[in-house]
Each structure stands twice: as C-alpha cells, then as structure tokens.
Write a structure and sequence with these properties.
The protein is α+β, with helices and mostly antiparallel strands. The chain is 34% helix and 48% strand. It has one domain: Bactericidal permeability-increasing protein, domain 1 (Super Roll). The longest helix is centred in the last third of the chain and has 41 residues. It is globular and about 60 Å long.
Length: 223
C-alpha cells in the first residue's frame, strides 16, 4: 500500500507539467529531463512529504486488518536521479529508471490489529523505515482517448533496509526481534520478487494516476 501510494505521488508530480508533442525523439527526451529537474525542485519544497493520517482496512475472510498511521512522513523524495531514459514515438511510449539514494518513512503513531490464519498481531507505537539505493523501473504507453497512460509496468529493487518499530504485542523485546528480522530478510525478498510485486501493483497505480493527473498538452508543429 505504501509503495503504491508513493509511486502515485511521484508520478503525479512528474506529470503535472506541460508536456510537448514533438516529432524528434532526442528533443522529447531533453524536455523530459528538463521536466524531471523541475519536478525535483518542486518536490524539494514538499520534502518531507507529510500524510497526517492514513487508514487501511482488509477483511477477506483470510486476513482481517485494521491499520491506522498518524503523522506519516516520507523523507528523500526529491533526491532522485534518472539513470536511463528511452522514448519511442511509434507507438508513443516511455521507459525510465529512477534511483533514490535514501528514502525514510516515519510514522509518529500507529495502531495495528490483524488476524491471519487465526494468528493475532496487534500493536501501538511508532515506526521508522529507511531504505537505501532504491531503483524504480517504469514504462508506459500514452493514451489519448481518454487522456492518460496505459500498460504501466513497474519494477523495483533496493540494497538495504533498516526498520525500527515499537509496540508490537506491547512487547519491546519482540518488537526489536521483528525489526531486525525484517531488516535482514526484506532486501532479498524484494530482489527476488520485485518484478512480481511490480506487476501486482502496476494496475492500481495506473488507475490512480489516470484518476488524479490533469495532463496539459502544448502542441508543437511537426518537423
């Protein structure tokens, strides 16, 4: 959920600009690079990105989850580098690789109640998650009727994770064990299943982007 929300935030900021329609691929790539630089400058004004409250509820018969996070902050969203950029005019598609050196998500207060396969998990405390060297691989095709994107593909990877969570089962010793275990296991899990996870979240992110982004087009005469 958090990854989906973050990608949608980034995509919204990236696309909420003037996008030219041109016939020269190199010129379009230059325009996209310029747009990304402007996006970074704009995001710097909102870094950290603050979400006052976030609530997630799941009840599908197998998992029951109620989760509330207050004072959520995402640090480092403006410090990214576009490592690769490829534009294809026919059909109109874009592929980009974006790298973040460091992203930190902090939750000032969370409240968790979950039951999965008759195993309960609950907690009330705070959480800090720091990830280093995050790489997002994004590709999508342009859609003109309706205006937006389609066939979005996402993949991601990261090097290290450092998780600190308090209040799980109201037991700080257990919280430390879980923090250490997730910090050790999660990078390998993401490296192994990053493509699969990306496929699972691509469609929800695509729908969210198309619902939120008002793309303004500036038409350039064809050369």
């Amino acid at each position: 959920m958090l990854l989906t929300y973050f990608i949608a935030i980034f995509a919204f900021a990236s696309a909420n600009t003037v996008v030219p329609i041109v016939s020269t691929r190199g010129f379009l790539e230059d325009q996209i690079n310029n747009t990304l630089n402007k996006v970074a400058a704009d995001l710097a004004k909102k870094d950290p990105y603050i979400i006052p409250e976030l609530t997630q509820t799941i009840d599908n018969g197998t998992i029951r989850l109620n989760f509330t996070a207050k004072d959520m902050q995402v640090h480092g969203i403006s410090k990214f580098v576009a490592k690769e950029l490829k534009v294809t005019m026919f059909p109109p598609t874009i592929a980009i690789v974006i790298a973040f050196e460091n992203l930190t998500v902090s939750i000032g207060e969370y409240d968790l109640s979950m039951k999965a396969s008759f195993v309960p998990l609950y907690g009330h405390g705070n959480l800090t998650l720091t990830s280093q060297n995050i790489v997002l691989n994004c590709s999508a095709a342009a859609s003109f009727s309706p205006l937006g994107i389609k066939d979005l593909n996402l993949g991601f990877n990261l090097d290290t994770v450092d998780l600190h969570v308090t209040g799980l089962l109201n037991n700080e010793g257990f919280s430390q064990i879980i923090s250490s275990a997730i910090s050790e296991v999660l990078p390998g899990y993401v490296q192994k299943y990053g493509v699969v996870i990306g496929k699972l979240i691509s469609k929800p992110v695509e729908d969210l982007i198309n619902d939120l982004i008002p793309i303004k087009l500036t038409r350039v005469k064809m050369i």
